[in-house]
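Example record

One chain of 168 residues, shown exactly as stored in the release files.
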Amino acid sequence: MLKVYLKIDFSPSHEYKLTMTEIGFYHLTTSPLERALPRLLEKVLEAHKRAVIMFASQERLEYINSALWTLGKASFIPHGSAKEGFAEDHPIWLTTEDENPNGAHFLFLTDGIESPSLSTYERCLDLFDGNDEEAVAQARERWLKAKDQNHKITYWKQTKSGAWEKGA
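Predicted structure tokens for this chain:
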């Protein structure tokens, strides 16, 4: 069963506005997730926001957990997971569960994973491996589903330098 969560904005004029979470599809073409993710997370931290990163497996979570200690601009991206506990103290939370224990504004989805709780976030970043045809095909399916649910959708592709360029 598909559940759709909606945000309703009760504006002062007593009009009800329905808003959907913005979903950005991030097409990894030049660098793998462990190299691209720190740059995106640094932007979240610069904006004084919080993020949850969902992984398909505990092994993938642990691999990225290690990478975040050394691959950021400042050589460290502050983060935690259930292993460390104290979610409320971590601006970045790594998980394999559909949860938001740190009050995150941004949701990062990896490995083709989906979340039925999109409406609890301002923005969702769906990162997929552009060198894997199956991952690209699955991302297209998620794109169509999000479009059918009236989410605001953007597409981002890596440049040769690893920066992000907004696509059509």
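Notes: The two ends are 31 Å apart (CA to CA).
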